[in-house]
């Protein structure tokens, strides 16, 4: 069993725990080895000491309460009021947490050209020399033989260059479609196996941030980190007041300065791209700012704790999702105390299967949860690399590290689902219009030239089945279209792409043939069938009707796929459709439904007549209707077969509704109530009239038909 927690962008894994030690005896505060490190350009202030908590002594006075004795504090203990008070105290301790301010960064490093040039040369030298080695390996035909050596060198380069490049390496470590296996294996170590900083500095940081001695908080704590990553390192400890096992994450000293200079350089590069690279139409600086803003949020551990609480509230309602709780009384801007999670990283397939679990089941759980994040509530985990997704012994998927979060605007969430509908329908004009709602295009841009480009790409892509498509193929193809036209990709969209590509990379670890789009389709089908949102209801109607006819095969496919989602409900799928059908502004839909109901009724009646006729023994069949010996109706065998297949399709759709787990005849009671409305009675009359007219026409055709000549 491996024990894992997150270290600010990275998971921590340990084998058997290091020997626990009892916390050291109290030391005099002046003797603590405080680390005198310069703060980043973002903030220029001193840490704030928060007074110890107090409580009423019952006699109108206050008594001091140590952090270890204060009530509540999260982690499931204490009342809601106590928890909120503990959170407020944690926020006070984090009042000086860094905040991303590009103007302040530019002002600081703009006055330090020597420092900037030195860092730039360091980066260019390291990356350039590595690129030269790869080129020489390829030229000399030894690339494959040197893969392992070069992978190790790249990991060491990223580690040496610092946190910014460690994050780059983490992203590459989840892309087996980009990096060879040797590189994936080496770069995965960047998730939790980085050099540590001295334990004395970490313990001093805990005492300084929380304002109390170490031994008043923990009964035991590991003498060294159980893991370390780019932003911090983690210790396993046991709380003195409750005995609960917790993970204590401590931020690296000087981290703000390290990333501040790198982001200053990257932002400058983005400005040059915006100015001189014409084929990139997106605002590169805005994309960089969004990413950097999220990284700076990771430096505020109280913010991360609040993110974790919000994520838990939204998504941990599912029994297969686990989110650790936060202990506010022991949390500050640079110290985060959270519930300890036992589990295995999601890319350790053998260890997971050794517990009787299936990696693909866990990956599917992650994909479904991510779809809820992106398209249901809009609040999503923007850094789901393998170290932040753990398989627990109970088979749950545990999410860790909530420092980098983002949100999808509500309008964009519905537009994304609508975009999928238009893609399935190959409605490229509507797809182009979607880019207005997605804020990819300004309203004054003419989308007419974009439509052929979309058609050229997607006509080829859609020749594959959904199970053959992968997310990277679509991203690459859309990227080619985006480069040709004045698209401006919103910053949140870049984080969505990052999140989804990382998930697909995780899935490819377990199964090289796994397709995220195929695994996502049941969720889209369920949302279309059950969501009462007017935008999605219109999208469903658009998907099911084409050229005045109802596409029963499409509905059958939606029901089959939607039923694979555990939250699918036939009851939810039926009632919104009825409300839309009988709404005052639903006349156009009612006209289409009447027309389709006539076709269905006719198919049922005609096939019943044919089946009844065929069930009569041949010797007993009379010369039916005007001497026609071929059958009771003036239809060819091909016509009968087509109508029979249509009837069978409708019956299958009805069967799919009946096989839903929550199917109950009582759920049709609202339908009976709706049918009593004037609009519904009119609807039924129009259907009966249509069926009567078509059957009468067929009967008249049969009666007036000239009998076939009798052969001599």
Automatic annotation (TrEMBL):
Pfam families: ABC1. Residues 220-550 form the Protein kinase domain. CDD domains: ABC1_ADCK3-like (cd05121). Residues 1-38 are annotated as: Disordered. One of its GO terms (molecular function) is protein kinase activity. InterPro entries: ABC1_dom, Kinase-like_dom_sf, Prot_kinase_dom, UbiB_kinase. PROSITE patterns: PROTEIN_KINASE_DOM (PS50011). It comes from the Eukaryota. This is Protein kinase domain-containing protein.
